[in-house]
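Data availability excerpt. The first of two example chains:
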Amino acid sequence: MAVQIALEELERALPQGRIERGEEIRRAHAHDYWAFEAIHDVGGNPTTPPPAVVFPESTDEVAKILTIANEQRCPVVPFGLGSGVCGGVRPGGEALVVDLSRMARVLEVNDQAATARLQAGLNGAACERLLNERGYTLGHFPQSIAVSSVGGWVATRASGQLSTRYGNIEDLLLALEVVLPGGRVLRTFPAPRAATGPDLRQIFLGSEGTLGIVTEITVKLSPKPEHQDGFAVRLPTWEDGIEVTRELLRAGWRPAILRLYDGVEAQRNFSAWFPDQAPLLLVMSEGTNEMQGALELEIAAARAACLRRGGTDLGREPLDKWLGHRNHVPSWADLLGNGLVVDTIEVAATWDRVGPLHARVTEAIGAVPGVLVASGHTSHAYTTGVNIYFTFVGQATEEAEQERIYTGAWAAAMEATMACGATIAHHHGIGRVRRDYLPRELGEVGIDVLRAVKRAVDPNGIMNPGVLL
């Protein structure tokens, strides 16, 4: 078997202690945080774990791993911190998992250029804390920040909760280092902008480990915020909240948070202020003390836009509640143990298409037998459109029924999203859960281009097989 031969060679090529074969470690790397896998784990039918996990500590070691794996035609699955939710990690019994968690240093902070070089296995929360100590923020705050890696953010084209101000990962990424199958190392140039042909960074952004292993990134930094202000507002309709968001961005304002909850989610998450169902908009601006005047104008403009739409100002309390609890969510095991099938699905559309998106997707998911409720909120807004983050809750205790509800809800959401002319993924990536829908969005020619890139970069097909394509 290719994986066993590769492991024997890696034992000779790598320093002692890099390869782990323990049962607990292998089980922990059998899949990512995909809810579909949790259904099978809780049901007693877990995915087969990999035969071993390799923990490189340098780019050179990653290159040795991919050189040997490519020679032996051994599949390789990159692993950041395992927080992906789309099935991007599922090695089975015939692939090596390469865990980057030992490559977790801030290599350089350049104060003059306001940039940082980071190893790809660096934990997101640790990264932000270290940058804060130097007076900076990356401004990238996914809900998974405490359990995700900076390299994983690049691999999945991640977004953070304050993206409206700071941008998404593609806006923050200046350069990257990636090890290709066969061991060659590509390093892109960290320029503020370049016109040197197609942007090679974009080939690996969102590639989900199918083209190589990202080992280092260079990112741009912002000053650590010193001033922060915001409010929450109750709005008459979901459409009012959408229009407020669109108008503010079109006018040039960039609040760090413009987060709109539909009535179902507002009541569920902010029950103290919502005895009945009505949409809730959270608004927050932040920046340096020198920006305080501009930030006050931004908040005033947002409040005025909400009031023009009949909004009721609720003050800061709901915003502070969200800030304090935004990353606290029950585990899949806890939810499934209580007979609840839950997941989130994030999509996006331009403003001219976003109107029916919320209604059609929630209606489609809600029609799946066993689904109790489907709801949505926006979390990332642009001058051209907005994402909607849908949540569904179903009820079942048997594994087969839980799987039916889960796959049915996802299929309904994808079909309704495509019918509205929206994109099927905003920031969690494709993995396996969206893979079969990708050709319908990209088209035959688009898929052919991706396959051609895959053949050129990974001719032996060893990198994360079964994902994306």
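And the second chain:
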Amino acid sequence: MSTEIIEKLKRAVGPEKVKTDEATLNERRRDWSVTNALADMQGRGAPNPACVVNPKKTEDVVNVVKICNENKALLVPFGLGSGCMKAIHTTPETVLLDMSSMKRVRKIDKKNLIATFEAGIRGADAENAVAKEGMMIGHYPQSIDVSSVGGWVATRASGQFSSAYGSIEDVVMALEVVLPNGEVLETRLTPRAAAGPDLNYLFLGSEGTLGIITTVMFSLRWKAEKREYTAFYAPNMEQGFELQRYIIQSGWTPPVMRQYDTSETKRIFEAHARGDDCLLIMVHEGPKGRVEAEIKECQEIAKDLKCDPAPTEAVAEWLENRNNVHPWETWLEQDIILDTIEMAATWDKIGPIYRNAVASLNKVDGMLNATAHSSHCYRSGINLYFTFAAKASDPLKMEEIYYDCWNRVMEAIIEGGGGISHHHGIGRVRRDYMPAEIGESGVNLLRKLKKILDPNNILNPDILIPHE
């Protein structure tokens, strides 16, 4: 990239906000994806961007976007880098827009239960800010300590309490977005509207390809009055799925409903494992009367389906340790390639997809672990989180094994009629599976939207949408 563009950026936003030092560039050149970590370890990682810009206000973002658009310079937005789909992978021609300095709490409105945050604020900081007022956003992804609220919107995230509180699209009320030409779009702050298509949905899951999210307004909840736990053993995954289906279709909504297959139960809940049973853990919270009624009914449904009670200590242990994750390098250094793959399907399809995906993964040479658990439940279906870990006999084959595993799971999902992503998004890892997800018509529609909004193709152009 020419130094002229960097100088223009410095004049527009201030030289202190434009970083070109090696340490900053190196720190912001990629996200937390396995393939990026592996490439770094093998000496072929993403090159540094040309510069990193730290906007402090929306006006700064507007100025950066206008300069990049006028000069057709590649612009990649960066939240806190917790994404795992290789959506951030810079080049020497990249201007990286680091949103982490835009982290103010703009307003907390207790009467209307609305909070307004700048998009770069850390999720845990946003949640803590409203907690001081006795409220909650209720969006608790595993990455809450290392992800931004703008990133939640951009990747269409889902939190661990979603079975009652919904996913990110259920709590977003309005957005402020800087479009690729530098215009600022502010969607209307209203509980519902029928004023044409909901423009918020253009940017939910857009992964920084259609605009830069600068402000997010959330609908809040009052903190729950009571919290209790239940847990049940299921003889197999299908029976556990049925237990969850009966519970949620009966109108009960425990915010946490997580079911682990036999292998994951033995690995994660060793002290509470029982034979070859699967384990379902649930958190119940809300008004005291509702929690008590919900627990009673869930226990009756479990009894009818021959699912025995399990120790509730398992739930408490999960809550305590749920966000503790080892860095990828811990395993990669042992020549173990691994990842998680989340998806969703309707109730009639989830069982065959689970069996076929795990069976296919177990055919991979060196497979150490091929398992799954569910973590998000709906009236019409459920999500699964596949986990694989394989030991490579040749370290140089680790990436090949990685994509083989991904392809096996994707094929099982697509052939089984499921959805290829539940909450991690698309990035580069899933990009080429998009035609199977939304059809060629859907892909062409995304391409047209991209060309209309971003005719110079400056915003993160290599992700989400398959190449023509």
